[in-house]
Amino acid sequence: MKHNPTQDKWRIGIDIGGTKIAFALVDSQGQVMTAYRLATRAEEGLEAVIEQIVTGVNALGADDEIAVGVGCPGYIRDGVVQYATNLNWRDVPLQGILFERLARHISIENDVNAMLFGERMYGAAREHANAVYLSIGTGLGAAAMADGRLLRGASGVAMELGHINRADGSLFEDGASGGGLLKMVAAMRDDYPTALDAAADTQAIISAATNDDELAGAAVCALAHNIAEAAAWVCSTLNPSAVIIGGGMGIALKRWLIPTVETRIKAACPEPVSAAVTVCTAQVKDSAVGAAALAR
User: Fold this and answer.
1) What is the CATH number of the domain that holds 252?
2) Residue 282 phi/psi, 5° resolution?
3) Residue 11 and residue 65: Cα distance in Å, rounded?
């Protein structure tokens, strides 16, 4: 496509998920100009996924000079996906592969890191150079910036809060994620009256909690307290000015999460830390827009 001056400072965002890939052509204000969705086809192997990405980018009809940001699950370092369980990838040089196939500048990050970039550029962290993003969904993901720079760590996998091993051998996300919510409902079922079916999913549990079901409410409150504990740990360590709650479950549970996290930070953290923190929900809901913020 020939150069289109109206697309100057626009970006392409790609969010690679286990079942679908989201694409967005985003203007300088973070508004989606064109969006596209395709199945990931991860079960067919790496080349099938790459073909889907190429197809999706071409479908956006973007200027050839527009750069691409890619959010991808897993451990990522220097453009290489070291390990991504959902995609069955190990040591995939994704940045290099996409540069060769798309002939565009490619930036790639872990998907939760990408969402924090999106909040920093377009959303709740625009005024916060020190920010933490907690993504609550099927699992628990986290990302942090200090003085405007992403915290990566020695191995490039900083902020893996969900994978902290507890004394009982469980992972922290077992009590702070969608999977954890299901486990807590099962464990508490004999302790509270409920109208919940034994096969209820997270959406049904959240709906029941909203309608004052005692079992669902108790499980949601327990989840909120676990997430608040993690937020307090991170705040005392990093002294952010914003804790941003994101992810599908995080947004759905904001009624419980925001006040619980605020209360725990105030109780557990030194006053200069707690006084500096704003707790809020994510403003960037489209994962592809978060990925677009990576593009350079």
Assistant:
1) 3.30.420.40
2) -65, 145
3) 10
